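Help needed: design a sequence for this.
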């Protein structure tokens, strides 16, 4: 076993990071394979942060990332004294956090050869924050390693971009994602493959489908009948159903995440799970709750976004069948209705429908109410 086993379907990136970790050791000959500032890019769900923490574990572990020693376990739990993990899920990385990081970056490691700073959403850094970090990234302490993660190089300021070495992740193959699901969750291989296909190789989404039957059922319900809408009435009813499903889905995702974050806070403060926090620590819990409340407002919209992603995959399948392309379908389980829709609509309508989904997304981005945006979209699907 090794920490790299978790980085699924990314052989080239893994090879580069492994080599770098080996070259980081004192006395290694391949010195130029290593540098102190890294950027890991890749589309959502490709495993950017998984790769970043595997790299961190490989740098900090005496065995180069065995996955079994106390050091590797501490990286997995994000409690290693020489690891700083910066996770800014919704908020922009603020200036105080950035200053704290720069200070941390100047310290010598406590127990390993390096100190590793992982910034999970480096694309959320604003210009001011980036400039604060710039100097530290440009001339890092010899023992400090920066690992930034972002969707693409273009998401970072050019000044930062030019100072990091980039490792790009691609979209993993569904088979690789399925293999990971089988290994991690012990699910049936055929089911794992279906989840990987339907999640379009988004590792987190695929894992959610196999571990949360309700989430999969919501996906099924959202797509049910979408290709067979025959009237304005049906379209309007379907839009109302989508809004309700998105709301349910958003709440379910938020509840899981809120719970996990609270448990992490309890653990990081060394408190007994389940016990009421002492008075002087209560502000920290209040901050977390406020943050979660602000984020809850976005939850339903994220749910709508997931439905649109799934709807788009279904029209993509229709298009593939309409032009008889020899590719695997994302929604193989819906092949009969996809074939019928390909026959009925043809490639141009399928393309137009995919375009209409982009339009709906653009409307939602400028705060058009979801019901309106989705009704307009589904009315187009239902048109003759
Ligand atoms: Zn280890």
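Sure. Designed sequence:
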């Amino acid at each position: 076993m090794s920490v790299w086993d978790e980085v699924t379907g990314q052989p080239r990136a893994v090879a580069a990071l492994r080599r770098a970790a080996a070259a980081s050791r004192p006395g290694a000959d391949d010195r130029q394979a290593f540098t102190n500032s890294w950027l890991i890019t890749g589309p959502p769900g490709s495993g950017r942060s998984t790769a970043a923490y595997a790299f961190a574990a490989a740098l900090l572990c005496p065995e180069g990332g065995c996955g079994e020693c106390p050091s590797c376990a501490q990286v997995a739990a994000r409690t290693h004294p020489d690891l700083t993990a910066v996770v800014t899920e919704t908020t922009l990385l603020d200036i105080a956090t950035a200053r704290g990081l720069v200070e941390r970056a100047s310290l010598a490691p406590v127990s390993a050869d390096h100190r590793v700073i992982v910034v999970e959403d480096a694309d959320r850094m604003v210009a001011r924050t980036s400039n604060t970090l710039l100097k530290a990234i440009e001339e890092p302490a010899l023992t400090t390693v920066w690992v930034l993660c972002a969707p693409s190089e273009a998401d970072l300021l050019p000044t930062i971009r030019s100072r990091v070495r980039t490792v790009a992740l691609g979209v993993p193959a569904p088979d690789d994602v399925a293999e990971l699901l089988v290994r991690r969750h012990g699910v049936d291989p055929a089911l794992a493959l279906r989840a990987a296909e339907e999640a379009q190789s988004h590792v987190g989404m695929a894992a959610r489908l196999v571990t949360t039957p309700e989430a999969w059922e919501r996906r099924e319900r959202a797509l049910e009948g979408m290709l067979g809408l025959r009237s304005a009435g049906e379209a309007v009813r379907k839009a109302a159903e989508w809004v309700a499903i998105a709301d349910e889905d958003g709440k379910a995702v938020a509840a899981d995440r809120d719970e996990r974050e609270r448990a992490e806070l309890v653990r990081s403060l060394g408190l007994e799970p389940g016990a009421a926090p002492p008075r002087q620590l209560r502000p920290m819990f209040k901050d977390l709750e406020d943050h979660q409340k602000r984020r809850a407002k976005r939850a339903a919209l994220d749910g709508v976004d997931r439905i649109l992603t799934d709807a788009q995959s279904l029209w993509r399948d229709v298009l593939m069948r309409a032009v008889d392309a020899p590719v695997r379908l994302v929604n193989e389980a819906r092949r009969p209705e996809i074939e019928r829709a390909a026959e009925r609509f043809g490639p141009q309508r399928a393309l137009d429908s995919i375009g209409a989904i982009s339009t709906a997304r653009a409307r939602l981005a400028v705060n058009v109410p979801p019901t309106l945006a989705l009704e307009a979209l589904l009315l187009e699907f239902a048109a003759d």
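The longest strand covers residues 144-150.
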